[in-house]
Design brief:
The protein is mostly helical. It has helices at residues 4-8, 16-23, 37-41, 48-75, 77-80, 90-93, 98-119, 121-139, 147-167, 173-198, 202-205, 214-238, 249-266, 272-278, 280-300.
Length: 305
């Protein structure tokens, strides 16, 4: 079989400042919106001081997560050159040199934890746990079947916990359970999308992709879909002062089903952040979800997250 890089051809380089920015993977920062979960569901989005603290926490996680992304791209540069999309990443394409990448990584680490400490020492401690989790994923667990996705899901949980710590509120176990199932759902669908996109060349890009199969990932998809929907429904009923929050469930169902459709029809699940930010039906539904939830929370008043 012909080697993938020869088939794919050369990669056009961006100007260095733009390439350096892309190396941070700013599109992936949407994942850090989980930091706002506690602020949102505890009704503290009406308190400017709390919004500021949560926003500082969000910025801190953007920089800290970018530290992990740059490190991951340095480690995976050779494998990424075999991927039809990841080969365009600045480090894999050579637009950003390893030396510059290390400099960017150190700057993000210092800036991120500086902001984290400005929020609170407790927040910085949770951010450190997130950092350790992401680096252990890159260094150890990335090629372990199932454990790789569980580590990725843990990163989302740390974001949600950090958001609650930032504004000093209790976060419902149901919300954490829903976050965990949702993260697993996204992770397994990401692997499903990679298998569809890379086909026979999947194992060349990531060793453990050869140990996953479409049938197995479809089973995991079904389990995590059920877990996400049930835990969210129970959260709205058991942790809410009003049963009307259950009215947001159709939005959640549509986004989940739409995402599964995109993965199964075109392999878009290989880039969850890109899929969620490019797909207009998902974006519109997400906006309607936020507006509906705000309306319900305004009517219901403050509560624990």
């Amino acid at each position: 079989m012909t080697d993938a890089p020869q088939d794919l051809g050369p990669v056009k380089h961006d100007p260095l400042p733009l390439a350096a920015l892309k190396a941070l993977r700013p599109r992936q920062w949407t994942k850090n919106a989980f930091v706002y979960a506690a602020l949102f569901f505890s009704f503290n989005f009406t308190v400017p001081e709390q919004v500021m603290r949560a926003s500082l926490g969000f910025l801190a996680f953007c920089l800290i997560s970018s530290t992990g992304y740059v490190f991951n791209d340095l480690r995976d540069a050779e494998a990424d050159r075999l991927h039809p999309q990841k080969r365009k990443r600045p480090i894999a394409s050579g637009a950003v040199t390893p030396g510059l990448a290390w400099g960017i990584m150190v700057a993000c680490f210092i800036g991120g934890f500086g902001l984290a400490l400005a929020v609170s020492p407790s927040f910085a401690a949770v951010a450190l746990l997130y950092f350790v989790t992401t680096f252990s994923y890159t260094l150890i667990f990335k090629n372990f079947v199932i454990l790789d996705i569980m580590l990725l899901a843990a990163g989302f949980l740390w974001r949600a916990v950090a958001g609650a710590v930032a504004i000093d509120v209790f976060i419902s176990p149901w919300l954490l359970l829903c976050t965990g199932f949702l993260a697993l759902f996204i992770g397994f669908n990401k692997r499903r999308g990679e298998l569809m996109l890379l086909e026979e060349g999947a194992a060349k890009h990531r060793k453990n992709l050869s140990e996953y199969s479409p049938a197995l990932l479809d089973e995991f998809q079904a389990i995590t879909t059920s877990g996400t929907v049930i835990s969210y429904a129970l959260y709205t009923v058991l942790a809410s002062p009003t049963p009307y929050l259950l009215a947001t469930l159709p939005y959640v169902l549509y986004v989940i089903f739409r995402y599964i459709y995109l993965v199964q029809s075109g392999g878009d699940g290989g880039d969850p952040s890109g899929t969620l930010t490019r797909d207009k039906p998902i974006l519109i539904t997400g906006l309607l979800y936020v507006l509906t939830t705000i309306l319900i929370l305004v009517i219901a008043g403050p509560r624990a997250a």
